[in-house]
Amino acid sequence: MARGPKYKVPRRRRREGKTNYYKRYRMILSGHLRFVVRKTLKHIIVQVIKADPKGDVTIAAAHSRELAKKYGWKGGLANIPAAYLTGLLAALRAKEKGVSYAVPDIGLHEPTRGAKVFAAIKAANDVGLKVPVSDEVVPANDRIRGEHISAWAKILSEENYELFTRFFSKYLERGFNPMELPLHFEEVKNRILSSYRDVLEKGDVK
User: Fold this and answer.
1) What Rg do the C-alpha atoms of the chain give, in angstroms?
2) What is d(CA 14, CA 90) in angstroms, rounded to the nearest whole number?
3) How many separate helices (H) and strands (E) can be counted in the chain?
4) For the segment 68-118, what is each residue's pLDDT rounded down to a tens digit?
5) In the chain, is it the N or the C terminus that has fewer CB atoms within a 10 Å radius of its CB?
6) What is the torsional sign of CA 95, 44, 114, 17?
7) Dihedrals φ, ψ of 54, to 5°?
8) Three-class secondary structure of residue 6 per DSSP
9) Residue 199 CB: number of other CB atoms within 10 A?
10) Do residues 125 and 96 touch, judged by C-beta distance below 8 A?
């Protein structure tokens, strides 16, 4: 443990592993809105945030729970497809309020190639909300569609059905076959895009 007369106790949120104050300071100095992506074991949360001396102001937000409640999503709520769809929803809501640019804020998440946080950022760019990100770190389209999950489900169902039913129990409880996830992803994505058709008509969408 660090000690001595010059030692300063880190701020509470830094000790708790919630905030990197140096990165936050740099982003605030930029003067841009932040495209904030956070993940837990069960959910993905995406917000577009404006810094303010009195406290951050949320311009737009989306939670992966909404995918199931509002758009009929039957897949997991914390995987790569869910991260993309949640980022898509938050970005569309931000564009609806006139936001066209934001800097990425992934907090203390590791910036690993193909990470869920980059799936959410890719979604924003796909609907015209510019959030700088390298093509080298975003997940491949097949992973965003959940094809890796579908392939794993197929292997398990053929080789170890007991493990298949245990691993995909939540999917099966919803009456959903995980092998159909890529098709279901496209259906839900189109459902979200259709609900924001007026926003999309103002710009190009990939």
Assistant:
1) 19
2) 26
3) 11, 4
4) 999 999 999 999 999 999 999 999 999 999 999 999 999 887 889 999 999
5) N
6) positive
7) -85, -10
8) coil
9) 19
10) no
Hey, what are 112's tokens?
């690993």
Could you identify the residue written with the tokens 């837990």? 40
Residue in this structure with the two tokens 């990425």, named with its chain if needed: 104
CA distances from 120 to 2, 63, 75 (A): 37, 12, 16
pLDDT digits (tens, 9 = 90+) for 166-205: 999 999 999 999 999 999 999 999 999 999 998 888 765 5
Q: Residue 147: which H helix or E strand, with range?
A: helix 147-159
**pTM score, two decimals?**
0.85
Task: Tell me which amino acid residue 135 is.
Answer: D
Which helix H or strand E contains 57, and what residues bound it?
Answer: strand 57-63
CA-to-CA separations, 203 to 29, 35, 79, 100, 130, in angstroms, rounded: 29, 19, 28, 10, 12
Query: Residue 183 CB: number of other CB atoms within 10 A?
Result: 12
From CA 98, how far away is CA 79, in angstroms rounded? 29
Beta bridge partners of 46: 37, 62
CATH architecture type of domain 19-140+183-200: 2-Layer Sandwich (3.30)
Residue whose C-alpha is closest to residue 19's, from 62, 41, 63, 49? 49
CA atoms within 13 A on the CB side of 25: 3
Token pair 């890719």 is at which residue? 122
Pair type for strands 57-63 and 44-50: antiparallel
